[in-house]
Amino acid sequence: MTTFNEFKLSSDILKALNGLGYHEATEVQAQVIPTILNKEDLMVQSKTGSGKTASYGIPVCEQIDWEENKPQALILTPTRELAVQVQEELMHIGRFKRLKVVAVYGKSPFKDQVRELKQKTHIVVGTPGRVLDHIERGTLNLQKIKCVVLDEADEMLKMGFIETVEMIIKMTPSTRQMMLFSATMPNRIKELAQNYLTQPIEIKIESEHVTTELVEHELYPVRMQEKVRLLQDLLTVQNPERCIIFCSTREAVDALYQGLKAKGYPVNRLHGGLEQKDRLDIMRQFKMGRFAYLVATDVAARGIDVSGMTHVFNFDLPEEKDAFVHRIGRAGRAGEKGKAITFVTPFETKWLEEIQNYIGFELPVAERPVATEVEKSRAAFEAKLKAKPKMRMEKRADVNREIMKIYLNGGKKKKLRAIDFVGTILSIEGIEKEDIGIIDIQENVTYIDILNGKGWSVIDGLKTKTIKGKKLKVQKAYN
Q: Which of 180, 218, 251, 325 has its CA at 20 to 30 Å from residue 58's CA atom?
């Protein structure tokens, strides 16, 4: 196994990786990281769950110049959920380097994104439409872009974004480094690579997540009217720690969600018809363990990384073969074992055949649990339902342990700038510039990350000082 120490990364990046629990590189990381650090273009074919985001996130963060105020890296993703997840991952990786990562995507207030982009920004992650919108309005400056990452290029093609992606690439400096990641390589994606990548290194990682022992498969032939009952029996017997239950339509998700909720299951739902802020909040709660079962459409299958996922249920079969792979990729991640349970009705046998041909093996048919088995398991299942949810720490917890976000009741309206806050904080005894992280100046308030466990020292110090002649209220931020 390759350790991250072998890549000659800076101490700030290694410290963050250690806090995240990243010690040994996955196969894709071991090949991609040195290639990017070597400033070469590359195209990577890799299935979901292979550690792809960190494979480009680590070297991209490593190469960022903190002093530069304009964005140096641009990462394009097909969905808002993936944009937010990539932003969070890169913020964790670049935490001790004090990197500012901004996510821009549709159905989110444009003016809030403009406010963030006006401040020092190192990396921008976004969906193609909103990124292009910012470029055309002059709110996203591409002059200093050193690298462009196309994440899940095949999905961007499928969603009709490729022309927009090409427009964006053409506006970036010709000297930029290009990286293309895709689960599949259709001709249009190969053509894109040929047109915009310079002698790219090609890396193909065979997916192990479909066939390996990490994911155990069970197939249940079932009639449509029996599906809900079978799902309840399997949830009772197998008693998953947490799982995603995939349905084919929003209507199916809503119906199953309402039915399970009415019976007292700890459940929530996720589909494209929900407000963006609600979707992000639901995913955050699911990751933290506030509920155990998430009923979702395929919007949740792409790029969503939830640790401790024991089960995935294909309540409905997907019509597209690769969607099946992305669904089951939610389980068996990062070396953890998982189980993929698939229902098939007589109407879905054609799709099942196509999926089995695509993954290269037949899903093993399992026997349904009998009534006595279900009753025998019921007490343990109901005890778990009644128990207080076991909150899971997000992986950022270790990284953020030495960081405190502080709040000050002054911002742009008081004509305060980052340099004003930095100057005053550095006048506090024992505080150095390495202790000051991201500064987020809003209209009436400012949030500042204080690193290295010095948060309370800064709060105490600021209580006796003025900033640009103004006395501000300062406290630990709890939002």
A: 325
Q: Which amino acid is at 460?
A: D
Kindly state whether residues 277 and 371 are assigned to the same domain: yes
Q: Left (φ > 0), alpha (ψ -120 to 50) or beta: where does 58 sit? A: alpha
Amino acid (1-letter code) at residue 81: E
Inside any domain, residue 391: no
Look up residue 381 and give its amino acid: F
Q: Do residues 32 and 56 lie in contact, with contact meaning Cβ atoms separated by under 8 Å?
A: yes
Same domain, 197 and 108: yes
Q: Which amino acid is at 472?
A: L
User: Strand pairing partners for 294?
Assistant: 244, 268
Whether the full predicted model's pTM is greater than 0.90, yes or no, is: no
- Are residues 196 and 335 part of one domain? no
Q: Domain end: 170, 205, 240, which one?
A: 205
Q: Strand 215-221: give its sheet, edge to edge.
A: 215-221, 338-344, 311-314, 243-246, 293-296, 267-270
- The answer to whether the beta carbons of residues 299 and 270 sit under 8 Å apart is yes
**Which residues is 269 bridged to in the sheet?**
295
Same domain for 188 and 285: no
Tokens of 144: 């200093």
- Specify the residue for token string 């006796």: 464
Residue 423 near residue 454 (C-beta atoms within 8 A) = no
Domain termination residue (choose one: 166, 183, 205): 205
Sheet holding 177-182: strands in order across?
101-104, 123-126, 73-76, 147-150, 177-182, 42-46, 201-205
Total domain count for the chain? Answer: 3
Half-sphere exposure for 158 (CA within 13 Å, toward CB): 16
Identify the pLDDT of residue 389. 62
Q: Are residues 19 and 53 in the same domain?
A: yes
**Same-domain status, 74 and 122:** yes
Residue 146, pLDDT score: 96
| Domain carrying residue 123 | 4-205
Q: Is 160 found in the same domain as 19?
A: yes
Kindly state whether residue 392 falls inside one of the protein's structural domains: no
Block means of pLDDT (10 residues each) for the chain, length 479 residues?
A: 86 89 85 94 79 91 94 94 88 91 90 89 96 96 96 89 94 95 88 92 70 76 94 93 90 94 90 78 79 84 67 89 78 70 92 86 91 91 75 52 86 92 92 88 91 87 91 83
Question: Can you tell me the distance from the alpha carbon of 446 to that of 448, in angstroms, rounded to the nearest whole number?
Answer: 7
CATH number at residue 197: 3.40.50.300
Residues 341 and 441 in one domain: no
Q: Please, which residues have CB within 8 angstroms of residue 119's CB and are 6 or more apart in sequence?
A: 100, 418, 439, 440, 441
